[in-house]
Amino acid sequence: MKRPSRRLIWGLLAVLAAVAVFSGLHLSSPSVPDGSDVTPVYTYDIVNVYPHDRDAFTQGLVFEDGVLYEGTGLYRHSTLRRVDLETGNILQVRELPAEYFGEGITIYEDRIIQLTWLSNIGFVYDKDTFELLREFSYPTEGWGITHDGERLIMSDGTSTIYFLDPQSFEQTGQLEVFDGDGPVTRLNELEYIKGEIYANVWQTDRIARISPETGQVTAWVDLEGLLPAEDRLEPVDVLNGIAYDAENDRLFVTGKLWPKLFEIELIPSG
After folding, report:
1. 30, 59, 127, 230: which has the fewest C-beta neighbours closer than 10 Å?
2. CATH classification at residue 209
3. Which among 83, 84, 58 is positioned nearest to 71, based on CA atoms?
4. Within a domain: residue 1?
């Protein structure tokens, strides 16, 4: 696939920002802690740094069996990818039709599930071949998706988390996410890690760790300064993308159009 130019990408982003305004997205500041609550905050140590495709508008990230899987966005440039962690090389790619804006991905058993943003349609692929197996629909926007082994867990950019049956894709429940300051909105890419839902909060450098039972934010992860200033000389977008290597207990994060992917260790703040 021919890669879009940097000028084209940022032109598309400007258009998407306008679309967001006129489609009714809430563009007020997201709810993040201001110090009035006692929610624990974690910072990070960088364990390893890996190359990441600068043209990848990262919307979903999964690590399984030694391989990184990535879903990317933007109209006419959305993909599903299998990526070599060490080199950043794309090992396998499937392009989405031009009318779809790709969003979060997850791997459930032998299938990859990918959301789209405004089309109310998700795709199910064979994990090995990337063959399209089926489509499914949902009534909300599609942002992030993960699973807890029994249920799919989905975000739509609000403070609501939805639970779906992994076979029928019917909604089985929902959860409102909050901390001491109230509802936590703009929940984006998701990853289920050790009994908690990790969620990027769009347009911030924060990840919320969420109880799947109560919806309460149990801790915040502050990743401010993760991408060095020298890597911001070319345009980059927001932090987005969480993947977990359960076998080796490794946590990976990156961002949209970032040139690097980071393996980090969480450190209690203070």
Report:
1. 230
2. 2.120.10.30
3. 58
4. no
Residue 135 lies in a domain: yes
Domain of 210, in residue numbers: 6-268
Q: Average pLDDT per run of 10 along the chain, which is 270 residues long?
A: 51 49 38 60 98 97 97 97 98 98 98 98 98 98 98 98 98 97 97 98 97 98 96 91 98 98 94
Per-residue 3-state assignment (H helix, E strand, C coil) for the chain: CCCCCHHHHHHHHHHHHHHHHHCCCCCCCCCCCCCCCCCCEEEEEEEEEEECCCCCCEEEEEEECCEEEEEECCCCCCEEEEECCCCCCEEEEEECCCCCCEEEEEEECCEEEEEECCCCEEEEEECCCCCEEEEEECCCCCCCEEECCCCEEEECCCCEEEEECCCCCCEEEEEECEECCEECCCEEEEEEECCEEEEEECCCCEEEEECCCCCEEEEEEECCCCCCHHHHCCCCCCEEEEEEECCCCEEEEEECCCCEEEEEEEEECC
Q: How many domains does the chain have?
A: 1
Q: Is residue 220 part of a domain?
A: yes
CA dihedral 149, 151, 155, 156 (to 10 degrees): 150
Q: For residues 198 and 242, is the Cβ–Cβ distance under 8 A?
A: yes
